[in-house]
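Exercise (ungraded).
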Amino acid sequence: MARMSLKVNGRTLTVDAEPQMPLLWVLRDKLGLTGTKFGCGVAQCGACTVHLDGTAIRSCVTPVSGVADGEVTTIEGLSADASHPVQLAWDDFDVPQCGYCQSGQIMSAAALLANNPNPSDADIDAGMRGNICRCGTYQDIRGAIHAAAEQANSKNGEEA
Amino acid sequence: MRNETLELDRRQFVKLGAAAGGGLLLGMYQQDLPAQFGGPPAAITPQAFVHIGTDDIVTLTIHKPENGQGAETAMAMLLAEELECDWNNIRTVFAPVEPIYGGPLQGTFGSMAVRTSWDPMRQTGAAARQMLIEAAAQRWNIEASECRAENGFVINQITGASLSFGTVAEAASRLSVPDDIPLKAPSDFRLLGKPMKRRDTKAKIAGEAIYGIDFELPGMVYAVVERCPVFGGTVSSFDASEAMAVPGVQDVFEIPQGIAVIADNTWAAMQGRRALKVNWNEGANANLSSEQIHSELVELTGRTGAIAADRGDIDSALADAATTVQAEYAAPYLAHAPMEPFNAVAVVEADRCEVWTGTQIPGLAHSSAVEASGLPADQVKIHTLYMGGGFGSRGGGSWVAETVEIAKRLSGPVKLTWSREDDLQHDRYRPASCVHLEAGLDSDGWPTAWSGRAACSSFAGLRNGLDREAVVELANPNYEIANLHFEYHEPGIDIPTNYWRSVGHSQNTFFAESFIDELAAQTDKDPVEFRRRLLADNPRLLRVLDIAAERAGWGQPATAGSSQGVAVTNCFGSFNAQIAEVTVENGRVHVHRVTCVVDCGRVVNPAGVVQQMQGGIVYGLSAALRGRITIQQGRVEQTNFHQYEPLRIDEMPEVDVFIVPSDEAPGGIGEVGTPAIAPAVTNALYQATGQRVRSLPITL
C-alpha cells in the first residue's frame, strides 16, 4: 500500500493504494468515481477509457503508479454539466441504450476530436473501434461525432 | 364507498387512498401474461403505479426494468398520454417486488413490456385523470364534462380557470376509482406514436447513472467467487493461505457455488482469487467437448423424436415429390456478454435481506434471494437498478443467490462482481442446435412438403416432451406448405441454457430462411418472388417483404459490386424483413447495408423502435460473424472479448429502419431485429460466392 497524490478532474486527491492497482479501480473503489466502467479488464472493450494529459487511455490496464503527476480526466470531469460538444451531440442523437459503454465512448470520441477536428468515417472507425457497444449504437455514435465536429467547426468559423 | 377487494379483474381498480405526504395513489391491475408464463395472478394486493404529489410532481413506478430497451421511457409515455400531466414533471422509480407488478416473473422478457402494458398503463393514466377532473369539478361546482385536463392542469371550460394536478390530488384521492374509462382515440395522441427522447439519456452521458456495479453502501466489502471451470464440478479442497496474504483480502470461505474471496476493494479480491489454490471434483462433465456434443446432436437428428408438428401426409408428399432437397444445419452455443458483468450488493440480517442489482426479472431475483437467505418472502427486498445490458441473461438467478450466500456469512453489506471471464465461462448459454431439413418440391419447383428434426437443448424446460422455442419457425414455418412434419430431441447435455435475444428464432430463422432460399435456388427462382407466393396467406409478413424489396432496390444493390440476400421473420407479435448487401474481400465478409422493415403494430416510441431494430441487427450480426462458445474438457474455452469478439464500429453496416404504420395491437420489438440478419447475410453470400453457409458462425 502506498500513499499517493493524484490529479483527477482538476483536483489533487490523496489516495492509499497498491501501486499496481489499475487506475480504473482506484477511480471506482477508492475515489467513488463510478462513471468509468469495468467491462473486460484487458483493454478489449474500452468501457474504462479516461484521459491522461488529454490522451485516451484504458484505465483497466494502467497501474495507478504509472499515472504519476499526469492529469486524469474522467467522464465526470469532461465538462461541468454534460456540456462538452460530444456530450451535447450524444444528447441530440439520443445515443445511449443501456448506456454502460457510453462513458468510454464519449471519452474516446472527445480525444479523437481533440486530435482530429474533422474526422472522416474511416478516422472515426479507427479512433473508436476500441470501444465495444453490445447494444449496437454505432450508427448513432458516428452521426453524433460528425455532428459534434460540425458544431465545433462552425463555432470556430464564427469566431474567426 | 368502494368495496376494496383483493381480487381484481381487468376492469377494476382499487384505490389506496391518500398517500403519505398527500396526493393520489392509483393501483393498476396486471394484464394477463401469456399462458406459458402461468396466466393471470389469482389474487393481487393492489399497489401504486402513479403518485401525484401536492408539489405537482408525478412519480411513476416502472414495473419493467430498463436494460437499454427503452421500457422506462415507453411506460412513462403510456401513462402520460392519458394522464395529461406535464411530461417534464415526471419522475420514475423502479418497482419493488410485489404481486401487482407481475407475480413470480415480475420483469421484462419476451419483448412484452409494451404489448402487455398498452391497455393497463393507459387506463391507469385515464382513471387518474378522471379523478383529478372530478375533484376540480366539485371544487368549481360544475360538471366534470365541463372540464378538461391539459399539461398537468384541470381547466374549467366555462370560465377558463385552472387548477394544477397537485392542488386537487388530495381531494381526488378521496373519490372512487371510475369503472369505465374511455380512452383517447389514436388520432388524439399527443405523445404516443411520436419519437420521444429517452428519459435516461442525460444521466448516462454524464456518467451519473447508477448501475448495479456502481452501487455502494457504507461499510461495504467486495467479493469475487472462484467457480469450478468444469460444468457441474464442485470444490474438493482449497488452500487460502496465499490469497489471505494479498493486501486488502479479509476473508476466504466456501459457498455452494465456489470459493468467495472478500476484500476491501474489487481489485484486491480479484488478486486474492488468483492466489487461491483449489482442488476440484470435476465430475461427470470433465471430458465434455464441442466435438462430442456436435456429433451427439447430429446423431439425434437421424432418429425419430417427439412430434412437434404433423399436417397432411408427409411420407406420401415426399415420395411423390418431383424433387426432394435435404440439408443439415447447425448453430453453436452463444454467450450473452452484456457490457456490465453480473454483480449485486446484498445485506443479510436475522430478519432482513436486501439486494441491489440490475435485473431483468426482479421476481426471479427475489425468489433466488428468498431461497438463498432462508428468510420469508416479505423480509426480502430487491432494489432494481439500471443494467448494462441483459439480452436474456439478466434474470437475476445465479449471481443474486451467490451474493446472498456471501452476505449471510458477513455482518455487513457486500458487493459481488463477476469478471468478464466469469461472464463468458459461467453464463447460461443460447443452446447449440443441429437440424436436419427435408423438403419436397413439385414439378414447378414449389414446396409441397416440409419436414425435419431439431436436436437442441431446451431453453428453459420441456412441456409434454417439447420445447416450443427450440422448434419455432421450423415446426410452424411462415410459408404455406401443405404437408408438414417436424420432430424434436432434447439431448440431455449438462450445460446450462437460457433465453438469448430472440430465443429459438435466433437460430431457427437462420435455418428456415436459408433452407427456403435453397428451395428457391432449385429452380432458379428469385428469393423474394419465391417467398411472395408462399406468403400469400400471410399479409403482414408479405407486406414487410414487399416494402423491404422496394426500399432496398432488390435486384439493384446500392453498394457497387455487392450481393443481396433476404430473410423474413414473424416473432414476438411483429413482422420483419431484412435485405443485406454484402461483399467478400480477402476472404472476409463485409456487410455494407441493411434494409430493415418492421411491422410491430401500434408504436409507442418510434425512436425506440429504430434503436431496438438497429441494436437487434448488431447483436445478431455479431453472432453470425464470430459468435461461438466452444467446450473442451468440460470447460468453456473463450475467456474474454478477444476470443469472443463482438461487432465493432468499423464493421457496422448502414442500417435503414422503416416502421410500417399500423393500427394493429402492439407487437414486441426488443428481440425482433436479431433473427433475420444472419440468413439475410448468408443468403447474400450464396449469391456472391455460390457457397451455401449452413452453420454459424460464418466461415468461408
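Further reading is listed at the end of the chapter. For now, observe: The longest strand of chain B covers residues 574-585. Confidence is low (pLDDT under 50) at residues 1-23, 27-47 of chain B.
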